[in-house]
Each structure stands twice: as structure tokens, then as C-alpha cells.
Amino acid sequence: MERPIGEVIRNRFKDDLVRGVVLTDGLIGTFVSADDLQANRCFLYHLIGNGTGQWRVPEGGMGALVTELKRVALAAGVEILIDTRVVKIDSDRSGVSVATLSGEKFTARDLLFAGAPQTLATIRGEAKPELLEGSQMKINMLLSHLPRLKSAIDPKLAFAGTFHVNESYSQLESAYRSAKSGNIPSDLPLEMYCHTLTDPTILSPELRDKGYQTLTLFGLHTPASLFDKSPDEMKSSAKKAAIESLNQYLLDPIESVLAQGQDGALAIEVKSPLDLENEIGLPRGNIFHRDLDFPFIDSSGADLIWGSETADPHIYLAGAGARRGGGVSGIAGHNAAMAVLAND
Ligand SMILES: Cc1cc2nc3c(=O)[nH]c(=O)nc-3n(C[C@H](O)[C@H](O)[C@H](O)COP(=O)(O)OP(=O)(O)OC[C@H]3O[C@@H](n4cnc5c(N)ncnc54)[C@H](O)[C@@H]3O)c2cc1C
Known about the structure:
Blueprint: H1 5-12, H2 16-24, H3 37-47, H4 62-75, E1 86-91, E2 96-100, E3 105-108, E4 111-113, H5 117-124, E5 137-143, H6 155-158, E6 162-165, H7 169-180, E7 190-193, H8 195-198, H9 205-209, E8 213-219, H10 231-247, E9 268-271, H11 273-280, E10 315-317, H12 331-342
Parallel strand pairs: 4-10
Antiparallel strand pairs: 1-2, 2-3, 5-8, 5-9, 6-7, 7-8
Helix pairs in contact: 2-7
Bound molecules: flavin-adenine dinucleotide.
């Protein structure tokens, strides 16, 4: 909690590769060096799950989770409005009013806000809290089959769990330095997940029978600021760097196993941190909504009880930006609801 994780890793492990594999959980979506305490927080959040650090894939994909949440919410009498942008939030001693772009207005005693704290500040016309920029590029792919590896290991073994590419400790630190000086790192550190090996049901039976697989790639140390000047050009350079980095280890280059759409286009999509800001409202592409913090409340957070409170007594953070938020845990929404109930 108090010493940089880089220092702990260097003291504990000798091997550069082992050091790097340990460090990566501290760098997901987090643009810092191993010696910045922010990496410690990111590391903790990635190892806290299920009490053992075990990562899971929702059966049926994230869509199945959303469908179930929707079913339960509707059964409980919740009204859901989609494609409805909130443009104004006012509050006074008695409660809150919310105005939408289409001119509707809603009033209530309390508001549970499940967007980023920076978004809330913008809507309220307040100063935005400071935030580290997001630093990951994401590539989603559909493959006609898994590629063979130069190492000759069975692809089904290699792509189960997390597949690390160019993520030794020295490669991660050098990638950080290179991105910090404004360049896309060569030997770009990547990690990949093949969700269909864990849960084939996320594909249609037809694609499953044909042996298709999904592959999602997470490129580290590609901060939003790299893309600011020329977003499209930098995105294609970052895509090229990611593919080159991956292909170093593949016998079948990844392009040769990409599925094709009916129009002949290859089934690959690339998202930079700027895309994540434009398309799903993540400020500067920060996947956690705000800089992660330790989950316990110390003296600096004396006003927090549930971690969802804001400066306004009627507005609560119910999403990833709450203290103890930052991922798909459901904790922030639960805590915001508990904070409201505690005020009854
Ligand atoms: C590439 C990537 C990989 C990730 N991997 C993982 C992982 O493996 N495990 C994990 O636990 N987490 C992961 N995360 C983080 C996880 O996705 C988030 O923590 C989670 O989605 C946050 O949920 P949320 O409901 O708080 O916010 P969001 O899912 O961000 O939803 C907020 C919603 O608010 C909407 N909104 C914003 N402004 C307005 C407005 N003015 N009016 C109306 N609506 C608005 C947005 O459009 C959005 O739909 C990842 C994130 C990314 C981007």
C-alpha cells in the first residue's frame, strides 16, 4: 500500500519475464510507471475478485448480464428510457431535477448517477476532478480458427486464460517511456483473451460448428494523448504496431485467420481511448471512470461512508466512478442504494 509495486516486484522476483507478468495487472488501463503508487491500486483491483483474484467470463457474454438486469428491473417496476441524453442536473435542499436533451424533466428526492464523475461535473457546470488519461487500445476480432504458434504449443492451451505478448518488466517500462515521449511503443505490450474457449455460447451455433473463435486484444501504454493530434492516422499506426507485436509469435499471421463479413471486410475493429470517450462517454478513455483508489476509507475520505456520496447530499455515484467502483462488480450501485436508504 505504501511502497511502489515496482520496488516490491524487483525485490521479490529475479526473472524479467516473471516480473512483467506480475506487473501487468498493475498497468491495465493505467498509464504510469511501475514505481507510481497508482499501479498498486490497479494491481489490487485486478486481484481482489472472488477473494482469490480469479477472473471470470459471464456465461452468454455481457449481453446476457444486461438482459437479466433488465428483466429484474422491469419486474420491479423500473422505467427505462434509452437514447435519452441528460443535459442538466439541478438540486436544492429538497431534491434533484434532471433535464434531457429532448426537453423532458424529472424530479426526485435523490439521484443515483451511474456515469463518470467528470461527466457529472460537466453537466452540473462544475470544475472537473483530475483524472489520468486512459491508456489502452482495444482490438476485437472474429477468427475463422485459432492461429498456430511458432512455439508449437497447442493454440487452445496458449489462448486459454490470458495470453501475454511482449510484457516482460523491462519491455513494459521501456514502452511506458516511449509513450511518455510521444511515440507508439515498438514491441507493443499486449494481452489477449479468447472468450469463446471459456464460453462457446457467445457465438451462434452455426459459427461455433465451423470452429470460429473471438479474440480480444488489449494494448498497454497507448495513452489518449498519443491520438490527439491525428486520431485516425495514429489509430492505424497503433493497430499496425499491435499486429506486428503479436505476429512475432504466430506461425499463421493473425490477418490470415480473421473471419470475413458478407461484404468481404475482415472482422476486426480497433478502438483508441478517444473512441471510448466519443462512443461510450469514458473521459479521456479512462476505463475506470476515475483514477482508482484504495477501497478502504482513510482519513482523507472522512465524509464517505458508502463511497458513493458526492458534495451534494441528494446526488450519489452509482457507477464505476464511486469509491470501490472501477469494474463490473455491482458494488457501486449497491452502495449508492444503501447510502440513499440510510438517509431515509
Ligand atoms: C476495453 C475495456 C475493458 C474492460 N475490461 C474489464 C474487465 O475485464 N473487467 C471489469 O470488471 N471491468 C472491465 N472494464 C471496466 C468496465 O467496463 C466498467 O467498469 C463498467 O462498464 C462500468 O459500468 P458503469 O455502469 O459504472 O458505467 P458505464 O458502463 O460506462 O455506463 C455509463 C453509461 O452512462 C451513459 N451516459 C454518459 N453520459 C450520459 C448523459 N449525459 N446522459 C445519459 N447517459 C449518459 C454512457 O453512455 C454509458 O452508457 C473494461 C472497460 C473497457 C473500456
